Fold these 4 entries.
Entry 1:
Amino acid sequence: MHERRKPVIVMVVASLIGMVFAGSFLGALHHTRPHDVPVAVVAPETDVHRLGVMLDRKAKGAFDLTAYGSQDMARDALLNRDVDAVFVLGDGRVAGQGRGARLIVAGANGRIENGVLTEVFQGFGQATGIQVAVEDIVPLPSDDNNGISSIFFVVTTVIPAVIMAVLFAFAVPTAGAGRRITLLLAGSVVLGGANVLVADAMLGALAGAPWALWGVTSLLVFAVASFTAGALHVAGPPGAGLTALLLVPIGLPASGGPMGPRFIPQWYAAFGEWLPPSAAISAVRNVVYFDGNALGRPLLVLGLWAAAGIALVLAPKRRTREQRETVTPTAPEPATGT
């Protein structure tokens, strides 16, 4: 390659990467609005329907209301992560005066989402003459009063996991597939434990379930590191680079960041659900704040990425053009007479 072209190529590549970062983060997070936020409503079906019509007039499609027969069932649904809030009409009525309504939220879902829910339902109360009290049954700890520790914890796990996979490739370039997988497993447990040590024991930012958090974090590291290592093994540096772009500038905003997946474009959130960052953020919140509920889907996503990574590591390495050209053909043995 001509020396004068290299700087131009570097600038073009850097600009394209910058466009991916800017387009992904700003595209997902610059104009956020709620869509299909699941809310349990403890009221008769007719009142729930009327409430839905009223809320749709303010923000169409923002909330997905489901009628529940009892407050206990609705609270269980909130704790099990089936809904994001519970609205109890009490002796109030949608079509008339009343008092005693209550909005039950889980602060661990994030301050922004709970702020929107509180604003909307208290605004409904003011418009209808119903007093709406707010109760938080899963409050955030004082060390994470903004609810963003889980997001940054995942960021600070995904990036070192990618780096670890690349460093292993340089440190043990001739290792076989079995040894590479063993090293990735060991490194995942060590890196996962180190991050949990900082987040839980040293800072108290994600305290309360260290062993479960260690398990989830180690699985996240292995899913990311094994896939990166596999992409590097099969496709070389471009494969690892594309993996890093998919996981960081695309995967992180596709999780919804501090707003959550209910506040970004629906197609982007649906895509992000199948990427490790979004799955890991949900898993971390669920083990730390929700007693390990609703872990099935996040663990499935991480497990699928880990399986794909193992498959790529085990796959035969494709020879480059240079490698094929350096192969010296074996000369045929001369024929011998009898």
Entry 2:
Amino acid sequence: MSKHVHVIVGTGPLGMAVMRELKRRGVEHIRMVNRSGRLSEATGIEVAKGDVSQRTEAIALCKDAAVVYHCAHPGYTNWPTQFPGLTRGIMAGAAAAGAKLIYGDNLYMYGQTKQPLTEKLPHLATGKKGRTRAQMADELLHAHQSGKVRVAIGRASDFYGPGVKQSSLGERVFGFALSGKPVSLLGNLDIPHTFTYIDDFARGLVTLGHEDRALGEVWHIPSAKTHTTREMLELIFDELGATSKINTLSRGMVTMIGLFHPMLREIKEVFYEFEHPFILDHSKFEAAFGSQATTPHEEAIRQTVRWYKEMMREQRAQ
């Protein structure tokens, strides 16, 4: 096979969204990589089984790749111990194939700041997950600068959409509302907070994969208009045609519950995102590549609700 395979490492919500975007753009040869070698939505897609944290496996899984999309991540509580090794394996696989490596990153490395987030901000995170993200980004950019592998990093804010469950706008909002339960959110609902639709994140990453001008740099992926979290909830309730009771967790409540709940204990590190304005600036991306059409939140929410309804129907049928 000639070297034109697009390899997506990780078959979670972001990996699946990247796959959909590649197919939309007419890419024929797509290889999805995960640990099981199985994928429910694998029509016309190669699915490969392997552990990319193992260098030899990563090299084999990335064979013939033109672009490798790093959309993989370990469990949320295991980032410091497992994420760097995973990323180094993917880097080795892309380097061996001579492929471009596009990394789907988040915003944890910046830490708390009082200004909109731009790519020029220093990495001031003090928590272990933020420092892990900063370390991996630094390693990837250093590998690019040293000529080891061609890298571009795309960063997005808290995302939501089809397949997204573990997010501040995930199952505890969409799933709970559809089940008639009170929705559960963090912090202050009346401050602006950028949310990124998962398909917009994927569209931005694929753009980076097609643009050599993107290499060697960090890019903030365009998101639709920033609203307050409460305004986002109102859009969700409008789509559902019904409101739900809203439960919010304060920092003190997260600290207390976190004594018994590992996920909430981990979230405390980034709770500042939900206490102060959290606005993503993507002007650098638009200046370089033109204005990328983002999905209006109304349409994105409609697609997300549709996915949750279908998932819940399938669960009831089982």
Entry 3:
Amino acid sequence: MRLFLLTALTMVAFAANSILNRLAVESGASEPGGFAVVRVLAGAVTLAVLVHLRGGRLPLLSVRRIAGAGALSLYMIGFSTAYLTLDAGLGALILFGVVQITMFGVTSATGMPPMPRQMAGAVIAFGGLAYILWPAGEVRADPAGAVLMVLAGIGWAVYTLAGRTEPDALAGTGANFVAALPVTAGAILLLGGGWGMTPVGYGLAILSGAVTSGLGYALWYRVLPHLAPSIAATVQLSVPVIAILGGILFLAEAASWRLVSGTALVLGGIALAVVRRRAN
């Protein structure tokens, strides 16, 4: 039960990132690039201070930073710049589809293939997510935006897999954020992500970086060693659904039968993949 609650809390934190990002960008309080840079900076500062207060050190020179910080940078850069030209729903489908394929592919190649039940659950959950998020009318995906989102998906999948071997979740996450900051900032500014921000935009970005990203990612690294990779991949399909429900509660967005039925498919697929059958 404790693992379930911690995993659920992590998914809520991930979804809160989407809500905070939308609040900042859609209201005009922040450009996507500026939001991403301040988000990473706030996460790096918060985690570094917490590790220092705990009497620890950031393992910046560890070989784990190659995968952890490198993958985090790839995710942040791809995610922030892709949405400049990509529909939000289609972008989420590309992101989570690539995360699923990458994690299932890597684990299968390393001798940890998912069970048929887990594969079936992942397919059902992703089908429900596609039903919810698929854009109405003709689908037009900007090639550059789609490529950037594919890279973001690969980055997040690698970041998740790397977390399974991180001995200290808080220190490792802090080191990842610190090492990823200059790479992320330089790449986003070079790609024209934009910087314009208001005080409200800064506040939302700091909240996202310090709490729902920094602490949320540290919590994710803490629970990952206790989750099978296939399950870790599948439960993340709940994030867009939680974000949509959060939009209904906090942004006064409308609910629909499509959302309700799609959510049932997502949750049912996750349950099929996660819940173990009891022996008779």
Entry 4:
Amino acid sequence: MMLPAAPENLLTAEGRPRFGRYAGQVDAFDWHELAPPHARGAWWRRFHHKRWHYVALATPELFCGVAIVDVGWTNTAFAYIFDRRERRIVAEFSQDGVPGLTASLAGNAGGASRFRFLSRRIGIECVGQRLYRLKVEGPGLRIAAEFGPDLMPLLLACGPAAGGSAHATQKSTGLPLWGEAAYGAVRHSLDGGVASFDYSNGLLARETAWRWASAHSLDLGFNLQAGYFGAQENALWLDGQLYGLGAAHFDFQPAAPLAPWHIHTDDGLLDLHFKPEGARAKDKNLLVAASRYVQPIGTFSGWVRASADAPKRIVAQLAGVTEDHRSRW
């Protein structure tokens, strides 16, 4: 099913969220005018408002993941470089910030998000004409990249969040990439690679869990999630068009995330096998907050199609990630 064009605003004039999946983008993610039954008090919103800005970069040699996260009462950020040939993370940092001081999250996917804590810095911004820039600096790690323009529509998904209120996300498929990633004395060109981004903004439950998969080339890509957001953000980009997908099923071994995964949707439009090359994992327990997270990096093979009667498109060794994540935030 091809998706309709995105509305101008996430909320109607009466404050009702425009739940659904759309092709395109909006200029603001603002929940202050939410009407009942989705509206909550300002104090509740302060502690349940979660936002993140994530960028993935993929080349035959490297996979890089970068994110800035604001959970309302604090913020954090991470960056890593994964060497696909050595099958290991060769540089990374993860840094908790100071509330209200170290992170600034964009109000939409076309805005600028920044994190700065001592020598660790991340900047994600749109520099005009649908072009984006990423800069990362940290101990032994540096990324300077530009990517875009978007060759296929952005996904806009808005829906209820289990245990919370409303949530929305804006995601790209593969974008042309150029730049450089460096660690220590080693430098890698990113030219000719593929970038993608995820801007998410919502009022979520204190206990939130999800499984996620994402991979992109310049002519094919997908995003899948099972958990707090249901099938709202499940989408396929193919031949310049954006299609909605059904509920996603993740068959894997949680105790052995580097074993093969099988992922498929219940509408018969996607069936993929994921072969991990390595993973980034964190397990934090700060008493008032906790996060258990594993993000395998690897390749997807199988098939996708735009409709039940369309021919299957073969997917072979498409670089991307899966994720098993549970947060108390």
